[in-house]
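=== Given protein ===
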Amino acid sequence: MTESVVREVKFDKPSSAPAAAAPDRQRQMRRGTKRMLFVLLGVLVLAVSVAGFYFTSDVFDERARVMVASRPIAAGETLSFTDFGYDEAVVGSIPHLPWTADAPYRFEGMVALVTIPAGTLVRDDMFVAAETVPVGVELETVVPLDLSLATGTLFEGDTVLLIDPGAEPVEGDPGRPRRVVRETELTNFDGTQMQLFVSPEEWAQWESLLAEVGGTLMAMDLGIGADAGETARRLDSVWLGQWSEAVEEADRAAVEAAGTAAAAPGDLEVVVPLDTSLSPSGVVEGDTVLLIDPGAEPLAGDPGRPRTVIGTLRLENYSNGQMRMFAPPEEWLYWQSLPDVLGGAPQVLPVTEGTDVNDTVARLNALWRSAWQEAQTATAS
């Protein structure tokens, strides 16, 4: 009995290894399939993530309005606010100007330094103030300024009066009064001078003005609320009065200095007025001049007389249209009565050294006589 049981038990044990291994292979195949599925699923998730980022990245980018050129702008072109617009872009660290409604007006009247294609992001360094560079045919002029009349420190952009400093009267030269030349805004001002870029015509005006005033203009700031025109008129009036007094003082000084040419015994002093209207550039002490009877125009019943050279004269003790001399009584009477005889001050016309005086006198007298005769004929007719 015991033996048969044992045999049964032994009979039930697996009799071969391959039969026992079959379930293990089935389990291993299921694990491999799972791994492959996980790998494929991971790849799919990664692909979906990349595609999602690609198609939705703009949603996460911070886009801003930036200023751009609304049209092609050439270098050297003067700008208008209409030359600018805006676009939306992701600029990051790219240099740009943020767009605001007022931003384009910053560049009104400025000049482009470079060529700017339409749609280009614009920057401050692409433009410059028109008054700081020559544009087209503009020329540079530098205006030196004397700030001694300024009430305080002057700065770029201040409105000032530009003033001719004038010239003190001296013997033989009456000088000129100080006067306001113009009102202007200090441009490219470095504390001592202005740098201007202007048209050739205005450049010539500035150069002529600077030459006339001696190379430097004075600058005076205006008080708060002051009217430039009224201020200029009042200043000019004051300075004209001061200059007139200085001229009178210079004349008195000249007369006193001429006193050194004291009269000889029996000589008398006479002051002879002289008409310099024939001498546009004037005459000065020491000039040799032709002394001229101004003549008289013919009238009905009065033939008048031609303009005529009556002599030559060397100007001594001469100042401001008058010559002071000392003469014996007979000559004194001639000079004293000459303006009355001629009907006005005798005219003078300077002659340069080396001039043939006699020939000049003859030709002038002939011309003036001819003109007088024509006037007579016209009057008679």
Remarks:
- Residues 33 and 39 are 10 Å apart (CA to CA).
